[in-house]
Amino acid sequence: MNKKITFIVALLTLSTNLLYAQLRQANVQLLGAGKRVSGSAYYFNTDQKDFLVDCGLFYPETKHIKYEKDIVNTSRLNTKLPISPQKISAIIITHAHLDHIGKIPLLVNNGYNGKIYSTDLTKKLALIMFEMMLKSTSLGSETFTKSKNSNKVHTQSSCEWKNRIKRPKKVTFERNELQDSGLQICKVCLDIELQDIARLFKTIKYNRTFDISRDISVEFFDAKHIPGSASILVKLNLISGKKLIYITGDVGSGLDNILKGKPKVPKTVDYVFIESTYGGKSRVLPSDPFNEFFSDLNKSLRNNHVVWVPSFVLDRTQKVLNVIKKGQQEKKLPKKINIKVVSTTAKKVNKVYDQYFEYRPNSVDESLSMSPAKLSPAISGPIVLLTPSYIDQLDFFHPIVEKIVRSNNSDLMLVGYQDPRS
Ligand SMILES: [Zn+2]
Ligand SMILES: [Zn+2]
């Protein structure tokens, strides 16, 4: 009898220990953005829960090789999983730029089913970016279903349109090859894929601690980099004592017109991972950093030129619009400027910004798409044309680029990083 009781007590103690075992160890490993700018991903490997902070795409940045080769290598790298989706049960994201979140569609496509934690605004912006990616960014080689006569390809077995096909054909492509082959992913399938990502999100407010396991909690600090952006404080309640690990993500300069103020930071931390891309340069700021932009733009518009401004669809496009508005308010730019935003994704981001900020000039023409047939005749100066920045990789848009580059009446304004080899 006594033996039995001892056994039961031992069993109870063991199971209580297993249930409530305190965190013993945690390792952080950089899966990207080490000695390079892009591909941010921090892998937390602990004995309670494994998770990622950010899960970004790589950009071509191997300067000593040819640009074309770099693009091919980079897109190979971007179809490789950063980690097995079954190994992790949470992804915490700092902000919606693709070099921080762009590998999430690949993870979800390969079975990731854990939570994605972000601010509400980051979720909204991230879903716009994912929609853009799912249309045309390679997730590796995939087999699609199509009917003989349609240019639509399907990915989802539950798609009603796919299930109406009488004699379904299988075709194998990478998503980035679809457009040049005259094919398009079906809208219903795209929507299912997007919902599969959206349902994983759990949104978190700034400066609230939330638990992701018994001894691991997280707090978001406003990073003032882009709307919704956060630096992330991971709080580990280790058996050896508490440890605070801070991952800055990209942080704002404090000079932003749209997001006012400096980044918020915690009072104490034990370890910091800093994104230091521009940290090594000390720069003297002119008293009005936009005067040069205003005077160049004025000159071009006075000469009835086409001003082509390639810029990132998320945040840079909106910043350019905001600076034009500022110039108009300060009477440094004409009241009426013909501004066209043509990227579908940029327009969607504009709409989200509209809900939070009065950032753009009164008249911005968003009626045209990037399709050259309609856009080409509409390009005549004076006009400011805002397009996405990685335009060199969009073959279908090259007629427009050619038209602008060949004309003597056009100017190119660079407002952000552009690969010098592109
Ligand atoms: Zn960023
Ligand atoms: Zn479909």
Automatic annotation (TrEMBL):
Q: Which InterPro entries match?
A: MBL, Metallo-B-lactamas, RibonucZ/Hydroxyglut_hydro
A single GO molecular function term of this UniProt record: RNA endonuclease activity
| Pfam families with a match to the protein in the record | Lactamase_B (PF00753)
Indicate the segments forming the Metallo-beta-lactamase domain, all copies: 38-275
Q: What is this protein called?
A: Metallo-beta-lactamase domain-containing protein
State the taxonomy lineage: unclassified sequences, metagenomes, ecological metagenomes
